[in-house]
Amino acid sequence: MRRTYTPRALPAPDSGQRRDWQTIRGLIPYIWAYRGRVLFALLCLVAAKAANVGVPLVFKEVVDAFTAEKAVLVVPLALLAAYGLLRFSMSLFTELRELLFARVTQQAVRSIALQVFRHLHALSLRFHLERQTGGLTRDIERGTRSIGTLISYTIYSILPTLVEVGLVIGILASRYESSFVWITVGALALYIAFTVLVTNWRTHLRREANEIDSAANSRAVDSLLNYETVKYFNNEEYEARRYDHEMQKWEAAQVKSQFSLSFLNIGQAAIIAIAVTLIMWRAATGVTNGSMTVGDIVLVNGLLIQLYIPLNWLGVLYREIRQALTDIERMFALKAEHREIADAPDAASLAAGPCAVRFEHVGFSYEAKRQILFDVVFSIPAGRTVAVVGHSGSGKSTLSRLLFRFYDVQAGAVTVNGTDIRRLTQASLRAAIGIVPQDTVLFNDTIYYNIQYGRPEASREDVIAAAQAAHIHDFVESLPEKYDTRVGERGLKLSGGEKQRVAIARALLKNPPILIFDEATSALDSQSEKAIQAELDRISVGRTTLVIAHRLSTVMNADEILVLDQGRIVERGTHRALLDVDGAYARMWALQQQEEAAEGEAV
Considering only the top CATH level, what class is 23-335? Predict the structure, then answer.
């Protein structure tokens, strides 16, 4: 079944909480790996909040001591010292908690990001051909950032606030009449219920805005990656209109999101204002009738301030946590994406040495309704060269993708040294194959880096030797920065021929037993093509080589030539034998000779 990368559908309201808990459970193992630090940080959290709540308690005693008729100076001084100590302890334990938890947070982010990165590289070529790069990278970026946000807000804000709520309610219940507790608890319950209900409504709006944001970013990235194509067809305004269309939808979604935010903030402020007014009314009444002291009203006021200030932020934190959970969920969905091509449990490594390749009655299709290859049978003995020619769309490049195991065949098998490649580890199989693709894409780095990528541990001498063999060394040396010249995004600063030579050098540096040349000289002029073709013929000696070509002049020396037409091998043989047959190959040869002659006359 064909899999595509599409944004996840919005979950039904009744499944939201379940999905959030699944996301949290997925994070717990990464946090629990540092259980010692976590537990000690939690102890520091409780100590900090205990000191925080102790401040108004001591301040009450200070006020009452100063207002008492028999106040002694030493008592307030001791209380003031305790007040200062509690203030310092609160900051000390808070910083200790953050210091202890910093490594936990960063390590969790690093571990998950690395796993997602590795998993994305393990997914099939089909997934990466169909993905939208901008949207995918935005999901990963938001997901990794949200892990830190979730952990930080939970440990540094939510848990401390809950601890403080418990301590405040305990003090109110033990010292004052029950109305203080009921007003506080009722306000908390109403505040939390209102926040949760409105935030759940807002979550849908935020997800919609994120979907549109990803789509707009994908549109921009795709347009910029195809900068030259946009210029070729003078379509700057067309691209701008398409981008603006997405941004208009984003603007509308953001306005709705802001409206819901304002509604939430007003409602929260009203609940807190009513609760504080009621509490202070009860405290003022207690002072008036003599059941409470001035210190008690100071204490109640201090506790409420300490309680409602973080509670006011609790709504913001809850919204951010729900958004963080949504972003992490999307990144975890990437991590859970099915690996279409995976190693078998008992997969073996390909032994080093010469390799013989065979396609045994291979049938393949990218989509069920359109088959690409039909009963393809051929062998490439170790150290020999087989070329595949044919018109565009005949299935030539598909052969190299199957040999690399970017896809698995639906019928037949591809074998190396008699072993079905599905029984080999992908790493060992691909380590044995070097390729020069038709469309060479380079990293936005230096020429040296792009060549060395074929064998990262190679020495500088080896890199230069590969460049010389690919006939690019003299060109590189003529550049101001030589091998340190940056090639630009996807190698756009180099010409097609220069990129092709870098790709050839990279494949030569890898030094594999199997070589694939997929239209390897298609971007070169005739003179360069002859020079590099001679070099390719030289390096192919002793290696198992598959040459996929459109120009028949590049495959004349192959040990066997296969003519592929609409996914079927219609002819096979040497260059001379196929010309003698006077079939499809001979007609292609005659046509190309006429074209080359016409080009020569035009010059």
Answer: mainly alpha
